[in-house]
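Bench notes, bay 3.
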Amino acid sequence: QVQLVESGGGLVRPGGSLRLSCTGSGFTLDYTSVGWFRQAPGKEREGVSCIASSDGSTVYADSAKGRFTISRDKAKRTVFLEMNSLKPEDTAVYYCATVTSIGCSIRYRDYDYWGQGTQVTVSS
């Protein structure tokens, strides 16, 4: 049984930073790719970034490029999303998700297991 728990969300001022963590059980990052997604009120869930199981290669949405960095600690089964230069439009519930796959995508329909989400609010 795959279980995922996100943490690290909170309230931050525009231009600030947050580091989200996604810690799981029931899988190994050797064979599991992990994605970060977000959903703002009234909007569809969108992909932010992902990291592939095979070689740790990464994909970023245009909105995340240059500001967000995804990384992983395989021993701890934890994936991080470092978010810098945050903007009010980054406000959303952020979810991590997993799929047994060599590569990764930021299409939410490709993922099988999801965490409960962590709220990120960017406001002055």
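Next record in the batch:
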Amino acid sequence: VQLMESGGGLVQPGGSLRLSCTASEYIYGLDTMAWYRQVPGKQRELVARAFAASGESYTASVRGRFFITRDNALQAVYLQMTNLKPEDTAVYYCNVDAVHYSREEYWGQGTQVTVAS
């Protein structure tokens, strides 16, 4: 299974971007879907999670600005990012957990988001 992200790019401070992530094939036992981000020299940071049943969680720095949604039929996850700040600049990664016969974790290749004027 490969996760494919799209929607990254260059945006001015205060602008918006929408990231998308879809799977190359059907994922059995789809569970939590999430977005992480990483800047050079720092650990990968959890940005937002969308849980299988319902509900979302966000890291404090993006709460109220970023919104994660998922489409279980399409097995896709999205991250709507608004009021972007320079400190949001990072490579954003899609992450999916699945529980079928065992727990599996999948990562996307990453998409660059740059916030600069």
